[in-house]
Protein 1
Amino acid sequence: MQKAIALLDLDYFYAQCEQLRKPETKDKPVVIVMPSLRENSGAIATANYLARDQKIKSGMPLQLAKKLASKETIFINADKEYYKELSSKVFEIVDFFCSKVEQVSIDEAYFDLTSPLGFEKAEDTCIKIKEKIKCELGLTCSIGLSTNKLLAKLASNEKKPDGLFILREGIEKFLEKKKIRDLFGVGVKFEKIFKSNGVNKIKDIKNFKKEDLVEWFGKAKGEDFYNFAFGIDERNVEPNREKQQVSRMITLRSDSRDFENIFEQIKLLSDLVFNEASKTHKRFKTASLVIVNSNYDNITKSKTKTEINSLKKLIEVEKALLHEFLDESLSKVRRVGVRVSNFEEGKGTQKTLFEFKG
Ligand code: DCP
Ligand code: CA
Ligand code: CA
């Protein structure tokens, strides 16, 4: 089966985070600074697109950026804790849609949407992820969707900012335009080696044999670069995120507002979710009822309790949430889901005092 692999990268990330909490900076060039110990010195972490129009970019010394800036350019010192907080909220949203997520940096993650729905549905999922991040957090990102990591990453740069680029056909033509520096793993040092051998674009690699690349870069890297030139990349998405939540959803046989009918499904889903969550030996505090109504609106109702440590308790909370939903809404339920989150460190079952002894 053809794989469906996506790369999500947040747009001008640190600057976007700052603009989110400082609305007065809207429509202004914004530059984020990593200050150094010496006064008035430091490096540029990133710049929003208006500041990039002034030729200010990541890695540049602060002094140079100040020379390029206009009067209205706003300089802000980086607040990494705040960016990390937003970053984890973003990837929790991705976790909700996909269980195979590999975060590769503060603002970037691959996710594998191959199963169970395949490439056709992957596009829908990417659209939903973008919407939810926008709607819940107010942030934009760009997603590349393709058949492997290399192509997903390249695709993610095609429609920045706030873009979704699907690369499934015409891969050879797509790669024709790309410079050697665009290739995964090629930095300044490797770019020099390529260029000294007359390779300026990715397609120029095809003029050489695999053995030539192995000679320049060693076996592993040489072979990878050679394969990359043909759009081949066998690297898997290696999930590296702790599960932030466990959830299951089901579509009702027909749209319904009948309490017993819906509750019956909720009990089954709660059982599945509770067992899955207990496997990871986690305690959790939040239970949610997720409803998709007949208009395809998504409604989530949640309750947080000190500890939901038995299936019975989970079902009780879900029952109350269903009552609330039916009281508040007139719409019919099409899909229903149960989710638990807000995990706590430690084992799922509390040790008794007796067990702690000895
Ligand atoms: N970063 C940094 N120093 C660098 C490069 C990046 O501190 N030399 C930080 C700030 C960025 C974040 O990492 O906001 C993500 O880096 P990206 O390369 O993804 O760049 P941006 O997200 O800022 O911009 P883009 O919209 O091009 O992705
Ligand atoms: Ca980014
Ligand atoms: Ca990035």
Note: The pocket of 2'-deoxycytidine-5'-triphosphate (ligand 1) is lined by residues 9-14, 45-46, 58-59, 106-107, 160-161 (CB under 6 Å).
Protein 2
Amino acid sequence: MINILNSYKELSSIVADIVEKQLRKQPLSKLILPTGSTPLGLYDELVKRKLDWSHTITFNLDEYLMNHDHPYSYHSYMKKNLFDRTNIYPNNCNFPFRPTLSFEDKMYTYRGIDLCILGIGSNGHIAFNEPGSSFKSRTRVVDLTEQTIQDNSRFFGSAEDVPKQAITMGLGTIMESKKIILMANGKHKLNILKVAMNGKVTEDVPASILQKHNDVEVFYCD
Ligand code: GLP
């Protein structure tokens, strides 16, 4: 079911409530976190709440194949928008890396991800699992589709500057999380969200795999 909210503020604050509840209940929580425009309000809201992140371990969903120090890398995004504004230990903040099997091993060590927050791409991707990704996929290097490169060019200035490849957690990896929240913002996301959540479960729409998870909540505002 898609929960339709009245505003971006409400979207950010409802998801922040879920994260806050998790961190208070279990300080040693293991979270999977997204990037993109959608979670920016969530991160601002979490910072405002001055939570204790000192026992929290995070795994980001994906990263471009590029220098981590690049201003548009997801490492830089997370530092700027969340990590540097909380008391989280940098060593507890993980991003997919190569060899990808070692990253999966590291996640396995912390198996039992408590909460995974996701966004959705306009072609139905989650993390960088583009249409056609196997539902069993694990962390790996992927080629980005032209659509995703175009969509994400707004961060880089031009499509030519967007990296063509990324490392992403797999759909199989994401589905092992105990609880999953999908956030979507903007009229342009509503159609794909409906297709993913109410349509056929197919690898052509990666987010449709979420219909098979037993604890998913979907929040949308236009
Ligand atoms: C990128 C990220 C996804 C994210 C998507 C939507 O492609 N890899 O994890 O969900 O963008 O981003 P936005 O919130 O900016 O629409």
Note: Residues 47 and 85 are 6 Å apart (CA to CA).
